[in-house]
Model the fold of this input.
Amino acid sequence: MSELNVPEQKWLSSISDSGSLVLAGTGCWNLSAAAGLAQSLDAVQMPANAGGRIKLDMGRLEALDTVGTLLLRRFRDRLAGLGHPVMIVNVRSEHIALLDAVWRAADIGPVSAPARQPIRESIEGTGRACIKMMRASVELIAFFGLVISTMARVLVHPRRLRTTALIYHMDHTGLRCLPILGLLAFLIGVVLAYQGAEQLRRVGAEIYVVNLLGLSILREIGILITAIIVAGRSGSAFTAQIGTMKVNQEIDAMRTLGLDPIEFLVVPRILALMLVMPLLTFFANMVALFGGATMSYVLLDINFLQFINQMRIPIDITDATVAMIKAPVFALVIAMVGCYEGLLVSGSAESVGLRTTKSVVESIFLVIVLNAVFSVLFQFLHI
Amino acid sequence: MLHDDSVIHIRSLVTRFAGHPVHDGVDLDVRRGEVLGVVGASGSGKSVLLKVVVGLIRPSAGRIVVLGNDIGSLSERQRIALQVRCGVLFQDGALFSSLTVAQNVRLPLVEHTSLATDLIDEVVRVKLAMVGLPADAALKVPAELSGGMRKRAGLARALALDPEILLLDEPTAGLDPIGAAAFDQLILSLQQGLGLTVFMVTHDLDSLAAICDRIAVLNGRKLLVGTLGSLQLETNPWIRAYFSGPRGRAMLRTGS
Done:
């Protein structure tokens, strides 16, 4: 009988018995020792003339857990693979159930993931995404129709308008938006004036910074910054609120009580935002102009009176109304996308987060596209 | 001094939320190798007790010793070392939704051990088989599983590091009676196989009768511990109503 070469005595000691070799496990065969144990079991060298019986004596183990048992199983399989008949003997009574459970569980083979076909998957994915996008557009248009018809019904029967909800949402989307909107609009005005002043000073046309500020803020920047902030602040809130209600099955409960969720949840939000958005835009315009005027005074020594006088030259009332025309349209888009995405939330809390992100991205995208459309349209109409 | 066989040792625990007391002077000893069921009315602070034991909520006063470590005075490193020795199953499994079931079970093994990858994979496979999940469930994400399977997967994750204590928050809630009974048996067989101490918050009278060695009743901010037999003799009206109501009686008939 040739000895096995056992490198480390910490976990394993070999005893020669009559006719067979006995390897006794010692110490703790558990997770905290597993890395070292695995190494030393793997390092056990087999004699070349193998074939003798080996007994694995587990009676001296201080601790055994799942990982230890798995390593024991691996060791046994390795020895058996080398042609040794292996027996596990002397298992302590408290370890029998564990050995049993692990043995049974380990007998179930692994399942591998199906092979991937990246090219086919990417083509398939593109196709699926296109069809999904098409369906989503059709659904959004259908939702738009549903909202408009519900709104018309509410207008015919004004008592159906939820006034409390309307005022609540006007407060939350309008009044409470003022501080952040004011600060950002002011800073945008400052930045525009600063950049404009730098360039115009080179040609000695500092005064035209007023024209630049007036036109760009009143026609484009004011409404855009407002729409973006409102989309990020209120559009996302609409999705999250309605989505949470959907997860809690509140929308289903509403339907079973014979209440129309569009009328209860969507119409007040859309109307509130459409009423509030022009006011917010006007506020943002004024604050941004004030920011620009302040910077002009600091940088170019143009005082407020000069600023206002100069503004009268390039700007007339239509420039100021352009933004007011856009505002309710943008409000409609933002509120509708927000509510629509909220109603699309399904099941899990995770989908609330996904839909909220989507709602913000979609509404900002639509606002910027629509803004371009408006620019072309106004050009044609000479407004 | 502590008893050697007490793995969770709670003395005069007080927990308050915004001044409102949830526990007021709770004492409890959980012995090594037992299954302890914690019952109580909804809102009586059962789940809070579990969170206090695992260190998710800081108690307002009192002493809690888990596996010989006073959890009030642990360093961050010691706290993590203790956390590894306690497995927790939350109500709906609390699986990480962006990972597959196998990755969920893998994560603690990868983070807390230095095992070779193939050994980790094998451990994961064995754990999933031990909790009775079919082999193909390993590659699914939690959203694709039924409630019962999510709980089993959560159990496999809780057991990933071979903890000494298993804490369960309403393990059978939301399961049908057959699934609940099967889950009870699973907990019992794992408890015996792995030598676990089980601390189980539950509403399920059948679980109490089937697998709990002792029962702790949380009532009126205090805790009363006994066996099923001894609690029936209690005079406290809530405990009487709990164990002698129509459901309790039905359980005792079948349980005895």
Chain A touches chain B at residues 30-31, 34-35, 38, 65-67, 70-71, 74, 94, 97-98, 100-102, 104-106, 108-111, 113, 347-348, 350 (CB under 8 Å).
